[in-house]
Amino acid sequence: MATLSVQSVKKSHGAATILKGISLDIADGEFLVLVGPSGCGKSTLLRCIAGLEELDSGAIVIDGANVTQSEPRDRDLAMVFQSYALYPHLTVRENLAFGLKMRKTPPSEIVTRVAEAARMLEIEPLLDRLPKNLSGGQRQRVAMGRAVVRRPKAFLFDEPLSNLDASLRGQMRIELMRLHRQLSATMIYVTHDQVEAMTLATRIAVMKAGELQQVGTPDELYQHPANQFVAKFIGTPEMNLIPADDARKLALVHSLPDGTAQVGVRAEDVHVGHGVGAADAMVEVVEHLGWEALVHLRIGALALVARMKDPPAVGARTSITLDAAGLHFFDGTGARIFSSNDRASAQRARP
Amino acid sequence: MKAVRNALVHVVLVIASMITLYPIAWVVKMALTPSQGFSLSASPIPEHVTLANFADVLGARDGGHWLFGRQLANSLAVSLAVTAVGVVLACSAAYALSRFRFPGRETSLRAFLFSQMFPGVVTSIPLYVLLEKLGLLNHLAGLILVYSTTAIPFCVFMLKSYFDSLPRELEEAVLLDGGTRFIAFIRVVLPLSRPALAVTGLFCFLTAWNEFILAATFMNDPLSFTLPVQLQRYVGDYSTEWGHFAAGAILVSIPVMALFFALEKHLIGGLTQGSVKG
Amino acid sequence: MLFAPAILAAHVVLWHAYRGEEERALEHVVKTWNQTHPDETVDAVAVPYDAYSQKLSAAIPRGNGPDLFIAAHERIGDWRASGLIQQVPESADDDGYLPETFTPLHDGGKLFALPLAFKSLALFYRRDQLAQPPDTTDELIAFARQKRGAGKYGFAYETADFFYHAAWLHGFGGKIFDDGIPRLDSPEAIRSVEFVLALDREHLVPGDATHVLIAQLFNEGNAAMTIAGPWFTGEIAPGVDFGVARLPIVSETGKRAAPLLSIESVFLAARAASSQAALRFAHFLTGADGARIRAIEGRQTVAARAVWDDPRVKDDPILGAFYRQLPDTIATPSVPAMALIWEPVQNALRKVLRGAATPAAALHDAQARIMASIHLLPTPVSPLPYAIALGVFCLVALIYLSRRAASRLGQARKQRAAYAYLAPAAISMAILVFVPFAVGASMSLYHHQAGRFTFIGLQNFISILSLREIPITDPLSFYFTLGVTILWTVANVTLHVILGVSLALLLRNPLLKLRGVYRVLLIIPWAVPNYITALIWKGMFHRQFGAINGLLSLFGIAPVSWFSHFATSFAANLATNVWLGFPFMMVVTLGALSRIPKELEEAAALDGASAWERLRHIILPLLRPALLPSVILGAVWTFNMFNIVFLVSGGEPDGATDILVSQAYRWAFVRGSRYGYAAAYAVLIFLVLVIWSALARRLSDKEAEA
Question: How far is A144 from A161, CA to CA, in rounded Å?
Answer without folding.
Answer: 11
